[in-house]
């Protein structure tokens, strides 16, 4: 697991009843990185310095209930988490950003692209889905994904303001995965911003047919399948992953 670079520009914002952690790095056109479910911003430790070296202002945030951010009793949902992101951007004075989302972060990015396209310039969505039918059965029981879930327990206990509630947290997130989102081809056809649908060719969670569906449903979308990696390509092959991100968010 990479470490986050050191920055003096980090802290918490009060957002929709929670304390949402964020950090900023570098300078230039802003790009927001949204991590996957159960994870936290540390997973972007390889991508952040790469984008900073390419003259980008990088913003990371721990999603509601993840990492250093708190949660309420309100059930997790992608619309709610997208509203968290918008409220955070408002408080940071960010009118528009490029958005890089992994897994749940990619789904939140798609939510924003459909409902708030004036806030996102370009979208790179890796390992996302737009309906539970896009998920492989029992993906959470595969060796790699199962290892991820086991590792996130220790990460949660080290970072969370509620370190003793990991099992409840997993149950809540798993319910969201099973019940959301439910976007149709017509919904995706409303996306007008430049979008890249990306995935690994060995993704444990997302069916490749679903990747192709999303890419064909979104007007002008590009499909990128990285070879010899899975749902965790940013850790398994940071070089190709970082380059794919850079190409997707560069006009």
TrEMBL record:
InterPro entries referenced in this protein's UniProt entry, alphabetically: AB_hydrolase, AB_hydrolase_1, AB_hydrolase_fold
Protein source organism: Lichenicola cladoniae
Annotated protein name in UniProt: Alpha/beta hydrolase
Keyword Signal among record annotations: no
Gene Ontology MF terms in the entry: hydrolase activity
Domain AB hydrolase-1: 29-137
Keywords attached to this entry: Hydrolase
Pfam families: Abhydrolase_1
